[in-house]
Amino acid sequence: MRVLVTGGAGYIGSHVVRQLLARESEVVVVDDLVTGDERRIPGVPVVRADLADTAEMPRLVRALDGVDAVIHFAARKRVDESVLRPEWYYRQNVGGMANLLSAMESAGVDAMVFSSSAAVYGTSEGASIPESAPTEPISPYGQTKLIGERMLTDVAAARAFRSASLRYFNVAGAGSPELGDTAVLNLVPMVFEKLDAGKSPVIFGDDYPTPDGTCIRDYIHVSDLAAAHVAALDAIVEGRIEGNRAYNIGTGAGSSVREMMSAIAEASGIRIEPRIAPRRDGDAAVVVADPSRARDELGWSATRGLRDIVMSAWRSHELLVAGAHG
Length: 326
Hints:
Layout: E1 2-6, H1 11-22, E2 26-31, E3 46-48, H2 57-63, E4 69-72, H3 79-84, H4 86-107, E5 111-117, E6 126-129, H5 140-158, E7 162-168, E8 170-172, H6 187-196, E9 202-204, E10 216-217, E11 219-221, H7 222-237, E12 244-249, E13 255-256, H8 257-268, E14 275-277, E15 286-289, H9 292-298, H10 306-325
Parallel strand pairs: 1-2, 1-4, 2-3, 4-5, 5-7, 6-15, 7-12, 8-11, 9-14, 10-15
Antiparallel strand pairs: 10-13
Helix pairs in contact: 1-7, 2-4, 4-5, 8-10
């Protein structure tokens, strides 16, 4: 099978590329390399292109020649940035999707796995959020992901096209040390950054209605997430998915912020004394996926727990720090 992976030099994309290569798929990557790094995927052909630039369309169509399916990661993904630059986020994420779908139509490629997000659920909360939960994003970033899903649904209604939209919950960890998350956007790398600076990590609110008073989230290991993409790809190619189908990708089990801090302390060997700050506006007490649809329809389930996530993330962080000082 020949697969084109947009954003394949990035954190999640590179994990998927490596899993595809391990099963002897032929892979080509399209990436603008703004946040991606070719060193993550040595030996894989990379077409450097910005999907949101319509002038790149001919190159994109050529890259799709002979491709059986697309896995689409390439997008901007900072919620705070999307609030400050909404027009640019729509141009990048929605415009990029539109250009990619047009190029796929020109090249005769009719299958896609789409990197969506649990951000499509907006303020939905609970210990088992299903795909049928209301989709009311509260940020331009979340809106662009939901619009991407709706575009896929509309394309599938217009022509023979099959896709899966994977709604990620909280992704962390590393499949190997050199593939770690280098962006300080999520809880685990944010805590690491504080520890590097000799500062106390911050817990925003310890008075939530949870066992230890801190927020609970569903953390999934990036290697499990990568395996979900491969499982969805197989389901599409084998004809088990029609139209566009959404899937929650999480463990179905939540971990609190305090539990995460304890796991990081164990992995790093550093005593952590977090500073308690007031709650942040909009933070729900519990946000955990119901991943049963992915289990039942894709045959996929997460296999790694919190300790695996944090230990792998810390090993990757140590490698990054050693490289910075070496």
